Amino acid sequence: PAPRTVLLTGAAGGLGTLMRGLLPRHGYRLRLFDVRPVESEPGAVTADLADTDALRAAVRGVDAVIHLAGISLEAPFEKILHSNIEGTYRLYEAVREEGVRRVVFASSNHAVGFTPRPADGGPLIPVATPHRPDTYYGLSKSFGEDLAQLYWDLHGIETVSVRIGSCFPEPTSVRMLSLWLSPADGARLFHAALTATDVRHTVVYGSSANTRLWWDLSSARALGYEPRDDSEPYAAELIAKQGEPDPDDPEHARLGGHFCTRPPIWPH
Ligand code: NAI
Ligand code: 15L
């Protein structure tokens, strides 16, 4: 049977807020979890992923989990370690203990951020490209994908790891013309990831059907994802403001953009 009750971690965040609005239209009943209170949602669980009792209770009885909680940008390693690495491990342990069958993991383009962007008209980046994290943040997403693979191989827990591009209401940079995932397509992709059968651990790229696409959406389409949006209507205005991205500029040479050109944030 198709999953109906879904735990959404990171429900107070930007993507969580967008998905709280959109996923119920696909028929889901959402349970919400975040370390910050979720506005106008008194039933949401306010707890850290490190709170294993709260996490287990939140996971109990759901059909699937969409795991968005975590630090969503580069940060000192200790913070990434706590929320993204240990936090994702805690989530999978709760899922295993409570017998949940399916996780949709919010991975990121930054797990493979050092991959050169494809030449114009060249082959698109495949999902099988090696991990090339561009930050401690990207490293935590590579870890999450490997953790998902381990929990499939050891415990039979299915995951779709979605390497999300940029999911915001509108693209706001020329880079996002290639990576944009419209919120409506994001909900379509999560719906496909929740309902496709026999996914084992599947890695997909998460974007709309952008004219300037850099990566291969075929594994996402194989789940039943049919994107309807394209960033191209935003292109003229963004290029007029920011110029065409120059592939010789280090910020535009690689998938991860400026994440590849900033030094790591050391502990302090
Ligand atoms: P966000 O930063 O707005 O939301 C993340 C949420 O996770 C926050 O509400 C935060 O309170 C919560 N959180 C952080 N640490 C936690 C912990 N230890 N315990 C419980 N909750 C915790 O980020 P956004 O943009 O909503 O992204 C959601 C997820 O999708 C993140 O995992 C991010 O890495 C991933 N992602 C998002 C992209 C995007 O375009 N929005 C692109 C690629 C990946
Ligand atoms: C991400 O992984 C971030 O969570 C998001 O805030 C954006 O920076 C996005 O990547 C991006 O690369 O545009």
- How many individual domains? 1
- Proportion of helical residues: 25-40%
CATH architecture descriptor? 3-Layer(aba) Sandwich
Global outline? globular
Q: By helix and strand content, what is the structural category?
A: alpha/beta
Sheet with most strands: 7 strands, parallel
Task: Give the name of the CATH superfamily.
Answer: NAD(P)-binding Rossmann-like Domain
Q: Give the distance, in angstroms, between the N- and C-terminal Cα atoms.
A: 49 Å
Mean pLDDT: 96
Order of helices and strands: EHEEHEHEHEHHEHHH
Q: Using only CA atoms, what is the Rg?
A: 18 Å
List the helices and strands and how they pair.
Blueprint: E1 5-9, H1 14-22, E2 29-34, E3 45-46, H2 52-59, E4 64-67, H3 77-98, E5 102-108, H4 136-155, E6 158-164, H5 176-179, H6 183-195, E7 201-206, H7 218-222, H8 235-242, H9 250-253
Parallel strand pairs: 1-2, 1-4, 2-3, 4-5, 5-6, 6-7
Helix pairs in contact: 1-6, 2-3, 3-4
The protein binds 1,4-dihydronicotinamide adenine dinucleotide and D-galactaro-1,5-lactone (15L).
Explain what this protein looks like in three dimensions.
The protein has 268 residues and is α/β, with parallel strands linked by helices. The protein has a single domain (5-260), classed as NAD(P)-binding Rossmann-like Domain (Rossmann fold, 3-Layer(aba) Sandwich), CATH 3.40.50. Helix content is 35%, strand content 14%. It has nine helices and seven strands. Helix 3 runs parallel beside helix 4 (136-155). The longest helix has 22 residues, at 77-98. The relative contact order is 0.15. The model has no long low-confidence stretch (mean pLDDT 96). It binds 1,4-dihydronicotinamide adenine dinucleotide and D-galactaro-1,5-lactone. Residues 72-73, 108-110, 166, 179 line the site of D-galactaro-1,5-lactone (15L). It comes from Streptomyces abyssalis. Belongs to the NAD(P)-dependent epimerase/dehydratase family.
